[in-house]
Specification:
The chain has 9 helices and no strands. The chain is mainly α.
Length: 234
């Protein structure tokens, strides 16, 4: 692209600083679950609906920033056309709902330990506990996996590289805001997301910046959370 220019530094800082900050502020809702329950609302459904909307906004903002610099998705590693993207999304949904069916069958076929179920209610645990929650989680995971890889691997690493930042320095620089993208976390979760950011970034680099590969891996990690509810089975 002859008219392509470097992504402005202010745009990079705005994304890598602003996106995690707003995500962190949104996560403060986790401390106010009782407020939603008192209103007769399902906190999980409200929270994850807002999270899904926020991820969609992030995608739109990245599109806008790329367009302003005459970049395309292909420039940050996403080269699938609309038809292939539809196949990719369809594959995700088929796998996700097969997993959903397995979880529903397991829950219907065994007794549930109420004490274990209650233990899944601490502020940092957002395991979907009902069928409706699990369905919403599947669609949120679809958007989240694409958005986070688009932002913290494709956009972050490639835009930093455009300013002559070494690729192996760009990986941790992108991984740190990726941690705070996930809001309130325990120290164990902090290290989990930091290491995940390093690993996904390295995969992106080693796979010649083909973004679809870390997207698929990210989706699989997200969907594994559906299985967490099975620990309540007796």
């Amino acid at each position: 692209m002859s008219n392509k220019v470097n992504i402005p530094v202010w745009s990079i800082l705005g994304v890598l600083g602003g996106f995690p900050l707003l995500s962190y502020l949104l996560s403060l809702m986790l401390l106010e679950r009782t407020f939603f329950y008192n209103l007769g609302l399902d906190f999980f459904m409200v929270f994850w609906s807002l999270i899904c909307l926020w991820y969609l906004i992030q995608i739109l903002l990245i599109f806008k920033i790329l367009n302003l610099s005459n970049w395309s998705l292909k420039d940050i590693g996403y080269s699938l056309n609309a038809k292939k993207t539809l196949y990719l999304v369809t594959g995700y949904l088929i796998f996700a709902f097969l997993l959903f069916g397995l979880v529903e069958w397991a829950l219907a076929s065994a007794s549930i330990d109420a004490e274990q179920l209650n233990s899944l209610s601490d502020f940092s645990n957002i395991t979907p506990k009902t069928s409706a929650q699990r369905i919403l989680f599947i669609f949120t995971g679809l958007v989240a996996g694409f958005s986070e890889e688009l932002v913290y691997r494709g956009f972050a690493i490639r835009s930093l590289e455009s300013h002559k930042v070494n690729k192996w320095i760009a990986v941790p620089l992108a991984a740190i805001p990726f941690v705070f993208q996930h809001g309130l976390k325990s120290m164990d979760q902090f290290w989990w997301f930091l290491i995940s950011g390093f690993v996904l970034g390295a995969i992106y680099i080693l796979c010649k910046r083909k973004l679809v590969i870390p997207i698929i891996i990210h989706w699989l990690v997200i969907l594994s959370a559906l299985l967490a509810i099975l620990q309540v089975l007796e």
